[in-house]
Amino acid sequence: xxxxxDVSVIIPSKNAAKFLRETLNxxxxxxxxxxxxIEICLADDESIDDxxxxxxxxxxxxxxxGMRVVxxxxxxxxxVGAAKDCAVRSSKGRFLCFNDADDVSSPxxxxxxxxxxxxxxxxxxxxxxLGGQFVRLPEGSTARYTKWANSMIGxxxxxxxxxxxxxxxxxxxxxxSRALFDKxxxxxxxxxxxxxxxxxxxxxxxxxxxxxxxxx
Length: 216
Description:
Blueprint: E1 5-13, H1 17-28, E2 38-44, H2 51-64, E3 68-73, H3 79-89, E4 93-98, H4 109-120, E5 128-131, H5 143-150, H6 156-159, E6 175-177, H7 178-184, H8 197-206, E7 212-215
Parallel strand pairs: 1-2, 1-4, 2-3, 5-7
Antiparallel strand pairs: 4-6, 5-6
Helix pairs in contact: 1-2
């Protein structure tokens, strides 16, 4: 199966104007730009601030670097899960890079995760689930969890998932194959706001023996 893009960056958004410009700057600075085909897919969930305008103002900057910008609107409010699903449905990439509207990706993030995902994939049907290192701001916040989560690699990702700390791969660092997303069927959007759609999705992936978990 051929894909139009190597990577689709998935951004769920609701009233994110305060943070979005810095988030977009992080994506514009990616070292993978030029060598990989990347699209930016933002799904807006009825924002009443300048979220959409900020994205549109940055559209030309992305296009000048060869990246497509796709803006979609969540059909009906359904929380973060519905926004993520909406963005994925608008995308055309082989791999999905999740980037929350208030998180800034380090410059080498997409390149390192794409290279690792490619090395682990035998075909477009490979089920790949990658995470990454992260830093919490302000510095020192959730220090214990951050240190623990950043140490999760290889078999630890599966074996230590059911601890009191939480998920072993933090959702804003996820980089997964579209094949895996399609197999799970996306995020649950038929539940109340506040439902942990990321944990639900992660645990479903853990139940798939052939799913490959790793951290870039």
